[in-house]
């Protein structure tokens, strides 16, 4: 039996990259999983791979209507919702003088507003069920600054802060809210970064499975007394 038997998780941006690995990992521990993304084909394929306890929902995290439909789909298909992982994200960069308002609005909309809408959408179901676990995917860029990442950095500090205000407000309802801060992970988002140029004490860049264990932990009762906390998973890069 798994650590997440009977639980239901919704993971955004789960069609590929880190989110897909989180979906595989929570499914392997027995959870049912709603894979949510705007990439329908890989999302459907992953749901098919994971079998009966998995389904795909088209969810643009910036859309209130999509959130309403996705939470309803989780309830209709699996009967409950215990875990939300706000993983969908985009990155862009430019020196500040060239950082257009369009660039800023795009990254804030998906990473920060999308996470806010997700948290707001799942709280009624989690309150009714007596609890739940929300994980906001931040970054090492939610802990420190890097040149040109202005919008990304602001969004990742934002979801870290949102986890804390929600943790304080929702603790009495049994809903835990934490942030996870991955370092360099080899995905489609980071193809232009060479980990050899980074100082990583553990000696290599990360793979999605290096972060998945922390997600399973935060989804499970092993973290029952942890809320408003930050989990840095970066091979020591920010130590
Ligand atoms: P990725 O680009 O491979 O995956 C991101 C996923 O989010 C994609 O499937 C994409 O379709 C989806 N997405 C984008 N916009 C969306 C929207 N509006 N609605 C729904 N889904 C949307 O990137 P990844 O590396 O797997 O990143 C996943 C998360 O981890 C992001 O929040 C990212 O900021 C964060 N992160 C990544 C790294 C890294 O090194 N790769 C490090 C720290 C944090």
From TrEMBL:
Stored Pfam families: adh_short_C2 (PF13561)
The protein's Enzyme Commission number: 1.1.1.47
Gene3D superfamilies: NAD(P)-binding Rossmann-like Domain (3.40.50.720)
Top class in the EC scheme: oxidoreductase
UniProt xrefs under InterPro entries: NAD(P)-bd_dom_sf (IPR036291), Sc_DH/Rdtase_CS (IPR020904), SDR_fam (IPR002347)
Signal peptide as annotated in the record: none
MF terms in GO: glucose 1-dehydrogenase [NAD(P)+] activity
Keywords: Oxidoreductase
Family stated for the protein in its record: Belongs to the short-chain dehydrogenases/reductases (SDR) family.
PANTHER family: 3-OXOACYL-[ACYL-CARRIER-PROTEIN] REDUCTASE, SHORT-CHAIN DEHYDROGENASES/REDUCTASES FAMILY MEMBER
This protein's name: Glucose 1-dehydrogenase
């Amino acid at each position: 039996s798994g650590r997440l038997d009977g639980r239901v998780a919704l993971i955004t941006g789960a069609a590929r990259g880190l989110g897909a690995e989180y979906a595989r990992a929570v499914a392997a521990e027995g959870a049912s999983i709603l894979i949510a993304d705007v990439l329908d084909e890989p999302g459907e394929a992953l749901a098919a791979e994971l079998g009966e306890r998995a389904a795909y929902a088209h969810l643009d995290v910036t859309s209130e209507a999509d959130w309403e439909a996705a939470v309803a789909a989780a309830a209709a298909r699996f009967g409950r919702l215990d875990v939300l992982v706000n993983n969908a994200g985009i990155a862009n960069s430019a020196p500040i003088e060239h950082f257009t308002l369009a660039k800023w609005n795009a990254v804030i909309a998906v990473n920060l507003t999308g996470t806010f809408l997700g948290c707001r959408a799942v709280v009624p179901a989690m309150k009714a069920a007596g609890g739940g676990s929300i994980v906001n995917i931040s970054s090492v860029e939610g802990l420190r600054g890097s040149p040109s990442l202005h919008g990304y950095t602001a969004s990742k500090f934002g979801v870290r802060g949102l986890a804390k205000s929600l943790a304080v407000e929702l603790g009495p309802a049994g809903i835990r809210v934490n942030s996870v801060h991955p370092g360099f992970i080899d995905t489609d988002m980071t193809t232009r970064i060479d980990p050899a140029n980074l100082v990583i004490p553990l000696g290599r860049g990360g793979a999605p499975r290096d972060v998945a264990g922390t997600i399973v932990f935060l989804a499970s009762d092993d973290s029952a007394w942890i809320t408003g906390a930050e989990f840095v998973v970066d091979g020591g890069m920010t130590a």
